[in-house]
Structure formats: C-alpha cells, structure tokens
Amino acid sequence: xxxxxxxxxxxxxxxxxxxxxxxxxxxxxxxxxxxxxxxxxxxxxxxxxxxxxxxxxxxxxxxxxxxxxxxxxxxxxxxxxxxxxxxxxxxxxxxxxxxxxxxxxxxxxxxxxxxxxxxxxxxxxxxxxxxxxxxxxxxxxxxxxxxxxxxxxxxxxxxxxxxxxxxxxxxxxxxxxxxxxxxxxxxxxxxxxxxxxxxxxxxxxxxxxxxxxxxxxxxxxxxxxxxxxxxxxxxxxxxxxxxxxxxxxxxxxxxxxxxxxxxxxxxxxxxxxxxxxxxxxxxxxxxxxxxxxxxxxxxxx
Length: 301
Hints:
The chain has helices spanning 7-43, 86-96, 116-121, 155-165, 200-204, and strands at 50-58, 69-73, 101-105, 132-135, 169-170, 174-180, 183-190, 212-217, 233-236, 264-268, 271-275, 292-300.
C-alpha cells in the first residue's frame, strides 16, 4: 500500500547530501585557488619586473623635446630581505632601455644607515645623456608615519651623500636645468612630504617659467601641495600600489586617501602625475601589483 508521506523524506536525503557535497567542493576550490595565489604572491610577483611604457601628451612641448624618454624607478628598500641580484637586474634592465633621463623617487633603503652605501652602489654605472636624478623618500629619513619622529636623525644626509658619491644628482628642494636640442628642461625635486622639510617654492620658485618642468616627489600627495607652481609632470612612488590588489577586495593595505593616487597615470592641474609601484618591498608579498620600471615618452599634445 502506497502512502503519500513516505517518499519525501527518502528523496530529501540525497538532495541534502548533494548540497553539502557541492558546498564542500566549492570551498575546496576556493581554498586551493587562494592558496595558489598566496604562493604566487610570495614566490613570483615580488621580483617579476614589469616594464610599463606610457606616452604622455604635453601641451606646448617644444619639438626638440618630443620623444624624450624618462626611465622612472622608485622604492628600492635595500636591505637583507631583498633577494641577491634582484635590484642589480632591475638596474641592468633600465640601462638597456637607454633613456634620455633617469628619475629615482626615493626609499633607497628600508631601515637604518647600514645599507646606504650598498644602495648607492646600485647606480654606480647607471648613466643617461641628461643625467640621473633622485629625491629622498620617507624611509631615507627614517620616518614611517605622517609627522612621525626620526629613528635615525641625519640618515637623510647619509643616503644623499652616498648617492652623490656614485654620480646621482640628489635634488633636495631645488631644481637644475638641462638642455636638449637647444630647449631647456627643468628637473626639480623636493624632500619627502613626511619629513616636514618639503619645500615646493624653493624647488620651483626660481625655475624658468617657459621651460618644461618635471618634478620628483616621493609621495604623490605632494601633488596636492603645488599651489600656483606649475609642474608639467610629477613623478612619485611611495604607495607600492598597495602591494596587494586582491580580486574582489581591491587595495587592502592602502589608506583611503592614498587610493586617490595609488598607481599609474593621473591628471593634475598643469599636467600629469605618474605613481610608480616601486621595485622593492618592505615585506615580501605582491599580488596584482608587479614591481615596475616605467618608461615615459613625452609627446606634443
């Protein structure tokens, strides 16, 4: 004799088991996928250099400066935690590009003065027709939070002197003029924003009004402090692009204000801001934010 109440409980059991099994499989796939991502983020991406080529239209660019190529590197974080030979390889790759000018935007060391000389030696053979220029980052001042105290007072002078001894022109709130094809290019640099010694007026106040102006500033937030001073191109680093850009979650370790200028190219009142993701790291972990050598080519707008 058939009853209408007997079948449903029997039929429900396989369905419930199937649902639990499907959930377990999905969870296992998610765990496996994220475990693979973690391995990649530790072993692969931190030293997988990206060469990013960007064409920049510049209003009023003299014909002689059209095609000017700038190699931009940032955030080396020299220390024992950086794999041997990695940074040397980055410098070799930069030299192969044969840029007209090289810009280095700070954080040459990670912590303490003991790596300053070694960091500077990286650039001993690096040359460009218009020069190799640098500014200091917050780590070079041993300042690790906004308005923070310096753990190693005077470290900035140690780093700057070491770089200068290896032929790098360190721009500390000043500018220099270089020429190409009879046209003047102003290269300016300011001390890091967190150092409390950044002075845009000192760097750009006396610069030629008619010349193209490239400003090196470690922290991209400096672009908000230019005031009336014109900079056609601002080159920065500092953010590392957050080092992590996790699918569905984004740049987890960047403060909301820093996400405004996290990585790449942005418009600013008089031109462009380019934020380099850096080549080094403080902690070995990158995902979706490869280390970067940027090759910026100027074109007439």
